[in-house]
Design goal:
The complex is a heterodimer of chains A (about 110) and B (about 110). Chain A is mainly beta. Helix content of chain A is about 0%, strand content about 50%. Chain A is built from no helices and 11 strands. Chain B is about 0% helix and about 55% strand. Chain B has no helices and 11 strands. Chain B has strands spanning about 5, 10-15, 20-25, 30-35, 45-50, 55-60, 60-65, 70-75, 85-95, 100, 105-110. Chain B is globular, with a radius of gyration of 13 Å. The mean pLDDT of chain B is about 90. The interface of A and B includes residues 4, 105, 106 and 108 of A.
Chain lengths: ~110, ~110
């Protein structure tokens, strides 16, 4: 597809479980970003990849959160021992390496931790 | 401390009215972007401004970047119900890395 895709669109899990969220960026975009968004709020930065490496992971809230991008394209956000406070919409965005860094977003994954 | 302050946080107006949303900071930005987000979807880029004093128009939407590149505004003329959504500003700070700094958003409701 032409845009950023994210799977699953919805994920319901129980407290303490492990979840993986996937992001497929726009082809050719070397930069990939993960955000978390609560209802009616702006996105909260989690982590930014340039190619395969995490260039900035300062937004990850704690060591339960981890993200990978092994081949510089698809990325997976992994959350261990989920807590109810992790419930949010997780957004992925990608951008070209140059220019004004405009980011193109996927539709998000709504995570609900019961 | 919120680096980008957006105001108002909520706005409910009647169809046909005009409105302005503000995005302010004490920091200088090398570029600033405006996004619009609808429920269940990711933010969609509306415009990017990069030059101090720049004005861009997108149909009934007018975007302005402050002369000092510390603030921006979005003005909507003759609002329509289809303009309803969350409007977000985001910017890249001058001399900083590529991480976007986000405002908290303005939730706009245009009533028929």
């Amino acid at each position: 597809g032409a845009g950023v895709s994210q799977t699953p669109s919805n994920k319901v899990t129980e407290k303490g479980k492990y979840v993986e969220l996937r992001c497929d960026p726009i082809s050719g975009h070397t930069a990939l970003y993960w955000y978390r968004q609560s209802l009616g709020q702006g996105p909260e930065f989690l982590i930014y990849f340039q190619g395969t490496g995490a260039a900035d992971d300062s937004g990850l809230p704690n060591d339960r959160f981890f993200a990978v991008r092994p081949e510089g394209s698809v990325s997976t956000l992994k959350i261990q021992r989920t807590e109810r406070g992790d419930s949010a919409v997780y957004l992925c965005a990608s951008s070209l390496a140059q220019g004004a860094f405009e980011q193109f977003f996927g539709p998000g994954t709504r995570l609900t931790v019961l | 401390t919120q680096l980008l302050e957006q105001s108002p946080q909520f706005l409910s107006i009647q169809e046909g009215e005009n409105l302005t949303v503000y995005c302010n900071s004490s920091s200088v930005f090398s570029s600033l972007q405006w996004y619009r987000q609808e429920p269940g979807e990711g933010p969609v880029l509306l415009v990017t401004v990069v030059t101090g004093g720049e004005v861009k128009k997108l149909k009934r939407l007018t975007f302005q970047f402050g002369d000092a590149r510390k603030d921006s505004s979005l003005h909507i003329t003759a609002a329509q119900p289809g303009d309803t959504g969350l409007y977000l500003c985001a910017g890249v700070r001058a001399g900083n890395n590529r991480k976007l700094i986000w405002g908290l958003g303005t939730s706009l409701a245009v009533n028929p």
